[in-house]
Amino acid sequence: MTVTVPSKNGVLTRLADERWARIAEEHCESAGFCDQVLETASAS
Question: Tell me: the pLDDT tens digits for 13-24?
């Protein structure tokens, strides 16, 4: 699944499951924080 959120500048930012898995693999300390990452990247 791919999640799309608008950035603070109005640009749509997409995060696919495969990409998040790769990020979490390389940065295991952030593995449980996908929702927080999306919230930080979004306008809200």
Answer: 899 999 999 999
